Amino acid sequence: AAPAALPGPPDTDAARADGGPAVPGGHASAGQGVAGAAEDGAGARGFTDEDGRPKRFAYPPQLLVVDGGQPQVAAAKRALDELGVDDVAVCGLAKRLEEVWLPGDDDPVVLPRSSEGLYLLQRVRDEAHRFAITYQRAKRAKRMKSGPLDDVPGLGDARKRILIKHFGSVKRLRQATIEQICEVPGFGRKTAESVAVALARTAPAAPAVNTATGEIIEDDRDGGNGGND
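The structure corresponding to this sequence follows.
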């Protein structure tokens, strides 16, 4: 198949925080191709909010770069069509970095490794990876910092980790007595009592049970500040 023409984005020296390069007069957005992307259009998620409503852009993206091949590109294009977005070009950057996939094409466009256009697409793809990793790390850190121990006076992150490591999980810490908490090095009775009060105040409700089958409908899981039982 004859090589198709790719959109010609301007040169870029920096990358935007949302995964697109900060280019004057034109913007690109990058979506990571993940397992199941071919079914759910993961590459176009950046165009909707958490409730599925289309986002409003002061500077709308002109190019969506999907980290994947033909299936991911097709899924992203379908998702954009469903949103009524018809003014954003879509392409995919496959594992073989010189292969660029376009919607509806059975064969990829092969660009020279020295191509400035290929370099720009790689920059957008790499920024999407960096942003996704940074976001997931921040999300995990927030989850660790948000929990029933947050309101205990004088109990910082380091001392929370000591408690969780000693007992193994928030659930087991919740089951401990004040005397057992006092046995942890560096924890006096006053702090132990504050920990016990905080955990008692935030104790999860008993799980709902299907009386006919005995099936637990809602798991009893503690959130934040520690691991699972």
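Residues 146-229 form a domain with the DNA polymerase; domain 1 fold (CATH 1.10.150.20).
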